[in-house]
Amino acid sequence: MTTSLATLTLFGAGCSVPSKPGGDGADSMLLADGYEPDSLNPLLGYAHAGAAKFYDGLMAFDGKGSLLPALAAEPPVADEDARRWTVKLRGDVTFHDGTPFDAEDVVATYRAAIDPAYASTISSNFDMLDRVEALDPHTVRFDLKYPYVPWPARMVLGIVPAEKLAEPAPLTNSELNTKPVGTGPYQLVEWRQGERMVWRGNPDYWGGAPAIGEVTVVFATDDNTRAQRVRSGEFDGTVLPPVLAERVGTDSYRTVHHDTADYRAITLPSTHPVTGDPTVRTALNLAANRDGMIDALLGGHGIPGHTPIPPSMDRYHEPTARFAFDRKRAKGMLDAGGWRPGPDGVRRRGGQRAEFTVMYFADDSLRKQLAVAFASDAGEVGIEVRPAGVDRTEAASRIGTDAIVLGGGNPLDPDLQMYDSLHSSVIGTGTYNNPAQYRNAAVDAALDRGRHTTDSARRARYYKQAQTAYVADPGLVYLAFIQHSYVMRTGAWNGYEPVIEPHTHGTTWGPWWNVEDWTPQR
Amino acid sequence: MTPTTAGSRSRATAVARLVLRRLAFAVPVLFLVAFGVFLLAAASPFDPVYQYYGVQILNASAADVADVRARLGLDEGVLAQFWGWFTGVLSGDLGVSRSMRQPVARVLAERLPWTLLLTVTGLVVAVVFALVLGTVAAWRQGGWIDRVVTALGHALEGIPPFVLALLAIALFSLGLGWLPVAGLTDAGSALSIGQVVEHLALPALVLGISQSPWLVLHVRQSMLSSLSQDHVTGARARGLGERVVVLRHALPTALLPFVTLIGARIPELVTGTVLVEEVFSWPGLAAAVVTAATAVDYPLLAILTLVATAAVLLGSLLADVAAVLLDPRVSADG
């Protein structure tokens, strides 16, 4: 109802697009976001993949595939087996409240991340962290439980002042949840929850005060409402579904689609008599019409996915690790594997009918559409797939035995993208850690080597090997890396740089991931 | 002492007794409602740990989730949770909202005023509509105004507030461009009275109109019966002007049941407000209600339900007090 009505009025009204509203200068910006954070505390997951406007990590993502020092004065130094990491810190940094930043703050932040007393939601990301100590006021040493080369990718965690973590109690009531105090380029001026947030440039920012001194983010959850308000010239930019973004990004707006590591995949539980069969797994991968789904559901704004590594992570991407779209071969494989078509068109082997359920989160329309499209592709080769909408609680209880549409992704390191999805050692350690219980010794070995190898060229080779080994014996059907789409005002600012995005999107990422470096056009 | 003052004083005492009795009655009701909320929430299929983690659950290990569950006390039985909350409330501590990540008192302080503003304005709109249209329709019974008002009233009874809200946005905001679509202020503007009034107009109008059909039709009905009563016929016979007859003689008699009806409409008003707030992105309690319910956030959910219950109890109390004060024939014995 909401959608149809708003769409109807959206393109019927024919509004003219005024230039910048309200006579604001080009040193302020007005964005709309469809998603409002629950909390602005990095330890409760705020901007866990970086681009936290109020905070800096020790390291920061450069937008393309590398990590650069931020609060760290220079890249961290690891010992030989990558278990002990030493980091020199910047000496010229203060928090928004004027207190100086030093090693104690780093230690307190990382300790709170792993100390159960704080009930942090990101503790599992720091599972490898054993101890963190300040060697002197500007040097910190991390001791890991096992060799872990991708550690710098974990160092994007926003650093909070030690004083705010003095009491080891659950962070539900922490001041930082609504009044962030960090070292970041912006400080929070006002947050009217449910409505909007105002950031002001940090004049003392160590990277230089941002030229865009004020950013207002308005929260409007309905996509069509947001599109309409952009159309009327109210906002300088917003995040929208791809097709809607294309329609709104005209006149003084442009539409951009960012590549991501944000995959959508169907799990194939190993214990299920149908999805556990290697022939069925490969056949399903051959039967999935990935390009068709991307064209029909994403307006073409997605990249076909075959393994967890997207082409945009090009250093680590193995281009030959892919599945052709070949129904004939899929059918032939199923025939040869003993899955014979039954009278109702669904294949059988022995007494087993080739059928299974694919769950999707009922509140996510893209996942639902993907489940339905996948079911129809599977039906073409004689496998019956029943899509089922579930909530998070139900999904967690069935995920070991039923397939599910999964989504996620983090471009900072291939280990983050592959290990917890495919390595057999994580089975049973968490609901979404390798939920389909995929086991492949060659994949395991390559992923382990990737964790231990410091030489970056050799390390990249191991991840390529892992993808090749995975494609020979797939355990999921990776469908696509969805692009994230945005509209932004043209002709007002310089500084836009495309970025490879994680699962998170909205106004903290998107074109504005580096808004602190933007400058007004004169 | 004249009989009138003695009469009004005993009347005042009776009203005071009525108020005290209702307040005494409200205490166990509120207690039971709060307890019921805890029981219902405990029986709901939602696991609060998923709301707490959000997308972080994708990376969370089972051991860490179990730790967090224990730290947040999610494993405690519902009775223990209720007792902890109840003793907290008695000592003035409303607790911490897990889903909003801040103290419940702050959630209330930030959002309740906006909800009250919207509700009260909506109620005023509804009452004004009801009195004007109901009176005019009854006065000119069978005329075109009457037929339009009656037909519209019956039609609107069947239209949910959110549909009305979307139609109003389509017409006034997108079509005519008179009023802003949503929010509390224009995106870039600071909080100011002019801004809030401009943004309040549409939601309050929608809320008022969605609540008015019952009231309009009711006023019309009681006006019709009061217009045919003896004292009105008498007033007409004495040659009083039509305006005086309608406004001074017929309307007051019709008002009494109307006041009681307003009290009875408060629950509908509360639900209507929740829907209207959602559509207009009004930063009131509605969004908090939804979040709290899906997150099984006991402290917030209980307080929000108590606020709604208190509104209903207070509404009916005020209506009864008004009835007692307006009409000497009404007994205050309850």
TrEMBL record, chain B:
Pfam families: BPD_transp_1, BPD_transp_1_N. The chain crosses the membrane at residues 23-43, 78-96, 116-139, 159-179, 246-267, 279-296, 303-326. It comes from Halosaccharopolyspora lacisalsi. Keywords: Cell membrane, Membrane, Transmembrane, Transmembrane helix, Transport. The keyword Transmembrane helix applies. One of its GO terms (cellular component) is plasma membrane. Belongs to the binding-protein-dependent transport system permease family. SUPFAM superfamilies: MetI-like. It is a multi-pass membrane protein. It comes from the Bacteria. It is found in: Cell membrane. This is Peptide/nickel transport system permease protein. The keyword Ribonucleoprotein does not apply. InterPro entries: BPD_transp_1_N (IPR045621), MetI-like (IPR000515), MetI-like_sf (IPR035906). GO terms for biological process: transmembrane transport. Its main location: membrane. Residues 112-319 form the ABC transmembrane type-1 domain.
